[in-house]
């Protein structure tokens, strides 16, 4: 998904193997992922997508000190959406192995990542072919 404030930015879905860079999009208050070589196109991730960064992930500091970068201590993360019941705030986030979540818009610009894995598609349960069900008797007792 791409956050609500990126609706006016060109976008495309992520693919396994995509090389991404964190960026502040033009005419937007939001940071997110762009493909390397496509700085004006937001790459939208589905919840559950796994990414690996080249270096330890850095994000902006707290509200009291926005200029100071904070190292997360991890290089891998899973994309999540948070606070979906609140329509006018950022939802796109990364969840780290320790359970911590950080909004994408708080990531420092210029960090490189690779899409490792997309979430599995939901499986549908099919009924067995008729030939397999003929001749079976259910015992209830």
Tell me about this structure:
With about 140 residues, this protein is mainly β. Helix content is about 5%, strand content about 35%. It contains one helix and eleven strands; from the N terminus they run βββββββββββα. The chain has one helix spanning about 130-135; strands spanning about 10-15, 20-25, 30-35, 40-45, 50-55, 60, 70, 75-80, 90-95, 100-105, 110-115. It has a nine-stranded mixed β-sheet with strand order 1-4-3-2-11-5-8-9-10, with no helix packed on it. A two-stranded antiparallel sheet has the order 6-7. Strand 6 and strand 7 (about 70) form a beta hairpin. The longest helix is centred in the last third of the chain and has 4 residues, at about 130-135. The chain is globular.
